[in-house]
Design brief:
alpha/beta, Rossmann fold, 2 helices, 3 strands, phosphoprotein
Length: 67
């Protein structure tokens, strides 16, 4: 039986930082998705998607990581 692939959600408004995180996680074998703000992260969660890890910026437009 193969081990389950880890998944991550990246919540970051800065495109460069988002890309760095995506590439780093991909190189580690972690399947990942990225969104630009907390509101988009909440929408993904409400759609039923689950993640093993969430990397979230604290200071973003629309809805930040604290809200």
């Amino acid at each position: 039986m193969e081990p389950r692939q880890l998944t991550a959600l990246i919540v970051e408004d800065d495109m460069v930082i988002r890309m760095i995180h995506r590439n780093m996680l991909k190189s580690l074998g972690v399947k990942n998705e990225a969104v630009e703000n907390g509101k988009e992260a909440v929408e993904i969660h409400r759609s039923g998607q689950c993640f093993d890890l969430i990397l979230m910026d604290r200071d973003m437009p629309v809805m930040n990581g604290i809200e």
